[in-house]
Design goal:
CATH class: Alpha Beta
Number of helices: 7
Order of helices and strands: EHHEHHEHHEHE
CATH topology: Rossmann fold
Strand order of the largest sheet: 3-2-1-4-5
Number of domains: 1
Radius of gyration: 14 Å
Helix content: 55-70%
Length: 138
């Protein structure tokens, strides 16, 4: 089964923070790792925020911006996910950004790994619940 990761997991590949080791363990699995191309903007934005807060240096943020485009995860175009992402967002009454990851997960028949507690809560009890795993439960 392929894995979909969101920005809450991917940023932990590059920055030493809570659940860093668990995020790295996702990379170590022998499975294809996929994400909507939105992840590039989201991870790079998190890196920018961390520079603004003094958590990382500018050079680290620049490296993160380069590395998130390096081939892992394999990127799916948001264009191909847009219609379904909107349907999910309207159904869940949840921001569409997260729903791109859910649409991608659904499309590939994979499992979404996230550290986003709110997203996990929103899908719990619904048809997508079995497709979303919290990083801290790996």
């Amino acid at each position: 089964m392929s894995l979909v990761v969101d920005a809450s997991v991917a940023i932990k590949w590059y920055v030493q923070e809570e659940l860093h080791d668990e995020a790295l363990s996702v990379l170590a699995q022998d499975q294809l790792i996929i994400a909507p191309d939105l992840i590039v903007a989201e991870v790079t934005n998190v890196a920018w925020k961390k520079v603004q807060r003094g958590e990382i240096d500018r050079s680290v943020a620049e490296q993160i911006g380069i590395r998130i485009c390096s081939g892992v995860p394999m990127l799916y175009s948001c264009r191909s996910l847009n219609t379904r992402a909107l349907e999910i967002a309207l159904l869940l009454r949840h921001p569409i950004y997260d729903c791109y990851y859910l649409a991608c997960t659904e499309l590939i028949g994979g499992q979404l790994i996230t550290d986003d507690q709110r997203l996990h809560s929103v899908v719990s009890g619904g048809t997508l619940a079995s497709r979303v795993t919290l990083l801290n439960t790996l």
